[in-house]
Every structure is written in structure tokens, then in C-alpha cells.
Design goal:
The chain is of the alpha+beta class and 105 residues long. 25% of the residues lie in helices and 34% in strands. It comes from Cohaesibacter marisflavi.
Length: 105
């Protein structure tokens, strides 16, 4: 089955610890409901940096990826269905990329 990376982008970060805990509980329940598809549950991402040959910039919170996961799905449509069920989709979006395994030997 093809693998897909789901990159979660939240435009709005939780304003309080309690809101963060509520979002985290919703994400854990979401992950559990799709566990047969999950290859790597991924991680929540903190501060991001943009690195170029000339500069390093800190990305403003809310303008960067907030989490990622890797799933297996029969096809792109099934991956989209899974992504559309992301519990905090109303405050962001999900970028889906099919994974192409590479051998670097």
C-alpha cells in the first residue's frame, strides 16, 4: 500500500494550557481511530527555523507546520478522507505527500 506523509498546519496555536490539552486529547483519539493506517504517528513540532546558505530565520508560531504523521492508504482519495477527519482542521490545513522510498546505497 502507498505511504503518505500528512503535514498538519495550524494557523492558530492554543492560547491556554487547557486548550492545548483539549487539542492533544482530540489528536490522540483521532490517531487511535485510524491506527490501522498509521505507520508513524509522528510528532508535534515546536519552533521552526528556515536555513539558507546565507541566513537562519525563526518562523513565527502559527506560520509553520505543527505536526506530522505517516500513514498507509489504498490511494490518494483514502489519504484525503483520513486527512479531512483531522480534528482541528477548522484552524488549519493538512498537506498530503505520497512517499517514494529511495535506496541510497
Amino acid at each position: 500500500m502507498p505511504k503518505y506523509n500528512l503535514f498538519f498546519h495550524s494557523k492558530q496555536l492554543p492560547e491556554t494550557f487547557e486548550e492545548g490539552e483539549k487539542d492533544l486529547a482530540a489528536l490522540k483519539a483521532w490517531s487511535k481511530s485510524f491506527e490501522k493506517f498509521v505507520v508513524n504517528p509522528g510528532s508535534v513540532l515546536k519552533q521552526s527555523l528556515i536555513v539558507t546558505s546565507e541566513n537562519v530565520e525563526t518562523v513565527t508560531p502559527g506560520e509553520t507546520l505543527s505536526a506530522y504523521a505517516e500513514i498507509e492508504a489504498r490511494n490518494k482519495d483514502e489519504a484525503v478522507k483520513i486527512a479531512k477527519s483531522w480534528p482541528i482542521l477548522d484552524s488549519g490545513f493538512v498537506l498530503i505527500s505520497e512517499v517514494v522510498d529511495m535506496e541510497l546505497d
